[in-house]
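Check out a protein:
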Amino acid sequence: MKAVSVKELKLELDNRSPKELRELCLRLSKFKKENKELLTYLLFESSDEATYVESVKMHIDKQFEEVNRKSYYFIKKSIRKILSDTRKYCRYSQNKKTEIDLLIYFSLKLKNFRPSIRKNNALRNLYIRQTDSITEKVSALHEDLQYDYRTELNALTESDK
């Protein structure tokens, strides 16, 4: 079965009743955890972005506490999983400010992680790629926001040089 285009989906959804749309959404939420998480964000959390950011930060904190620190192999796997989840939460929001806030927070947690990421090339490179990515995203924002985020970024990358 081949999936149809977004345009065709829009046209078909326009022809459905509100009750049918509700049933489709509920059915969709049963198939993947991500669909359910996105619906949760859209229905309950999108109205208060600041609270959403704080809840994701608490989730990131919890994940960093649970990292298996026995070897760098397990640390790398755990850190990549945390970054993947963080990016997923950024996609749900589609708000550039939220995305930058969460990625800066992730980078700060990674920088302060023990054992130090400086002892492992893969983790150090991941950190550098993240700060470069954040710098790129900040440059697309309004000038006032750019200034605020650049000061945060400078504090983040200051001791690395």
Notes: Residues 48-160 form one domain. The longest helix spans residues 72-93. Helices lie at 6-14, 18-29, 33-45, 49-65, 72-93, 96-111, 121-138, 143-157. The CA atoms of residues 76 and 122 lie 8 Å apart.
